[in-house]
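Appendix B, Record 12. Input sequence as logged:
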Amino acid sequence: MGAALSGPQTEGAYRKDGKLENIWDTWSDCSISDFYNKVGSYTGNDFYEKYEEDIRLFKSLGLDSFRTSIQWSRLLGQDEKLNEKGADFYHRICACAKKHEIELFMNLYHFDMPTYLFQRGGWENREVVEAYAVYARTAFREFGKEIRYWFTFNEPIVEPDQRYRTGMWYPFIKDAKRGMNVQYHISLAHCLAVWEFRKAKEEGYLLPDAQIGLINCFAPPYTREDPTPEDLEAVRMEDGLRNRWWLDLVTKGKLPEDVLETLKKCQLEPDVRPGDEEILHQGMVDWLGFNYYHPARVQAPKEKTDENGFLKFSDPYVWPEAKMNIYRGWEIYPKGIYDFGMKMKEEYPDLKFFISENGMGVEHEGRFRDASGEIQDDYRIEFVQEHLEWVLKAIQEGAQCMGYHYWGLIDNWSWNNAFKNRYGMIEVELMNNYQRKLKKSAKWIQELIRLREKKPIEETMVSK
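Logged structural output:
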């Protein structure tokens, strides 16, 4: 049981101690009005200054682990040499986690490319893929004796979608072909990082039991109860592009052939070069992180092409019985965790995984503050309780699920939504020096963990 967070969403100190500008800083500088309440990337939740307090909070709640990420723009300078002050910050985090006997999971990339590399083409440029491998190599060798669990990417499907397909994130590109190349190049970058990990381990830079993985938002796909062949085709491609693409990569060292064939037919295939097959084969991992917030419900597209003339594979399907988180616009469907667990058991039985993110964002939580000042977030307790029950059922039926991390345990800055939707079980008071304050759900999870240590988890879940 642990917490999930990320460097760019928590650290702040965006130009402190030699940190370079990243793409979020650039967007914030260019158009601060694009961010909720004009809160840009500059502050995070002040984890850079409060990491010791936060790790103590994790320990006080009974958590045994937490995940964050190194910021590429903080660890390396533009000359690709180590930024000593940036490295020292992450060494201090490692030491603090060890002091409090909390396992640190470290991710290398969370949508936060250094701007100077983005200006060279970002993930569209093979040279940037190679630069990421240099960054990964440096991180493994610098922190290899302090960190046991590593991850190459968090949600590698998101940037191709948000920056290149839908144009929701700066620089607002809407080009399916470019998006496909970005997805492919991120896949190659992952594989090169895994290769660097294996090499570093062989050379003695890493702990003997160190492991490498990948984290993605694997949204189980569903369609109508009476699907047409076209609806099922939409499910195949939804699952193929967003789930099987990464699952096949990390278990088989290759991409799903049926998806590549479909992309080729509609002239959306990525630009493959000689030697790529050997690179992809390096991408197999030790275990997997599964971020889950909502399912994917799709149906056959009404139009063959989108507004930009690219082939559409599906349209959204609104399930009549859907329960929604109205603040985020996401469906709440706890059974999706179980369905994914069964998919893993049946199709990828040798790969262990853990729930690496799961959480509920709610707007204007101050409405639920009681007379004592504590936020009574019973809705969040219900959300986590229901999801944990389905996790337990999946484990009982053979899924190799190793644990659960809640996102984000402490309220954090969430991209251009900033602090609009609060996810935390711990409140951050923005107008009071980022002071931390427990919500009702934090005390609930603390008690749940305490009970788990005394009796079987099945009895704990029933009693709660």
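Residues 160 and 369 are 39 Å apart (CA to CA).
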